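In the current project phase, we have settled on a layout for protein records. A sample record is reproduced below.
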Amino acid sequence: MNILLVNPPCGSRLWEPHSEHLGIGYLAAELRVRRYEVEIMDAGLYRWSVKKTCKEILKSSPDILGISVVQPALKNTFSIVKFLREKGLKSHICLGGHLPTLKTNQLMENFPLVDCVVYGEGDISFPHLVEKISEKNGWEDIKGIAYRDADDVKINPPQPLIENLDELPFPARDTLPLVLRWGRNAMLITSKGCYGRCIFCGPRAFYEKLPGRKWRGRSAENVLEELKLLHQDHSVKVVDFLDDNFFGPGEAGKKRAEDIARGIVRQKFPIKFSIECRADNIDKKLFSFLKKAGLYEVRIGIESGVQRILDRYQKNVSVEDNKKAIQILKELGIDCRIGFIPADPWMSFEEFLENGQFLRDMGSPTAFNITRLSVVAGTPLEDILRKEGKLIEKSFHNFDYLFSDKKVKLIYTLYRAIQISQNLCHRLVSKINVTLRDLTHSLKR
């Protein structure tokens, strides 16, 4: 039984500095433990075109083709599957990921060429699907599966969220050597989920659809073991923790973070790491210790410097929490990379200016994502805008919205035009640097 796991190309994110796809890595590891033959094809990482991706999939000729789908890659995914079917590929094609979870029924209705969707966390459902198909057994009763029965879409009950993450094998690292060669960092997931309630958050909507605890963390011992292997096997010295929120709720969440840091210090790992968390997670004493362990960068969804807007987003933090978090990180000398939303459908011109003043007051945190509020399919935001008559539905997965204040829309449009020009220059330089690194590597060989 030959299984191919694909991360499709995503045109709108072509020149982003991609890294490993750990979701596919976890599935591959789980299947290899069960002694299945699994290939990882990360077309997004390789910067392949749709045509090149199709050619390589046909060459592989898998029995089961699993495709991980994010919203910006859905159009390419549809094109790939359509082309493969036209060329006679008989593989069982399964889609998984956040979008297939949040728009399961619509996805199956709009694209009949796929055999099924695995929704939710696929660590149990997908291996079970592979097992049933390999044994030529009926697979239609598997939890967390949606399929088509004649003209009807059938969605089975959900597979509960995995309670003990330590039971999962460490992810397959097939693409890590290439990622490191390109100068990118290794990534590691220490937890799953988030206990936040932000209306625009895809992960929040994803976990809300499934039974079980919304945030679960691996034990410190389990995390330290994977760090050790990354350092020993790949000489990794910098790791990005890719958790939606590195900290779990309450004191137990803080203690787990302390235990991970304490283990890094005790075992003298020469590793630097970054994390993502909420502003109200940031405590000076705790983060001072995390810095001692190697914390060099924190990513925070600040989103706004206006309390009315934070409340509207259901951030459950205050402007003072945001200010305090940025100030603590500055005092500790930890790089602060923020997410910030300068425009949304309800924002007034006065709130727009107030947001700008907040950024000026805060000085210069390195903003890693300044963009207007995006509508992720399946989030509470989509429902809210639809009920208010502000949602512009281009398709079941692609949305825009009407602005209440036309001045906000105009100013943001001008800002984006300037930002896009700057990004194009940056991407061109990045592409040249990658090409030079690859050329240098080839010459050394």
The chain has 17 helices and 17 strands. Residues 185-404 form a domain with the TIM Barrel fold (CATH 3.20.20.70). Residues 147 and 154 are 5 Å apart (CA to CA). The chain has a mean pLDDT of 92.
